[in-house]
Please model this.
Amino acid sequence: MNQDALKQAAALAALREVPEDAVIGVGTGSTVNFFIDGLAAMRGRIAGAVSSSEASTARLKAAGIAVLDLNSVDDLPVYVDGADEVTHHLQMTKGGGAALTREKIVAAVARRFICVADGSKLVGRLGGFPIPVEVIPMARSQVARELVRLGGRPALRPGVTTDNGNVILDVHGLDVLNAVELETQITLITGVVTCGIFARRGADLLLLATAEGVQTLHPGGRGA
Ligand code: 5RP
Model:
């Protein structure tokens, strides 16, 4: 199976976790695109979706799924999203698609975060994939200096403006020994909107597709 087939298998497995008649949270990326395509076939069974990016909003609408403003929704039973890296504790690096801030907001509201990924995303420790940081443009240089103080090598992602009008610094070389602590440290830098470490609010369930099938992993290490 190639990587796309694995992404699709993980995404389609998440359809079983979607409650009927609910508004659900929908993430961003190529794995989630397969999920949206699967949702299209069952669109009458959900009330609508809250989207984490303009790209996912366009795909949801094209699939005939109603997209709701998060401010009009007080309960999101599930949020389905991919990851750039995920650990056995279901802490993640996200933001490869530059949608990290809206992803973190929707994840904060959701009762369950279901991460969908192919097996290549599972790592022992975060940091191999550079940590994306969304930054207010005028603070770019100052934030970069602070990230160097934390031991990282920030690089401006060329040609990218986020859905919120900001820039992305990708931070290479960070030793993510304590993901919760590093997420907090980076987020507290003035000028940072958010960072792509999702450790304080990790996933509740990981659907990980490998050649052997889709594995179900929980943060406590329970698998199925
Ligand atoms: C977008 C993300 C994506 O979930 C992450 O980049 C994984 O993408 P893909 O499913 O294409 O591998 O965080 O900001």
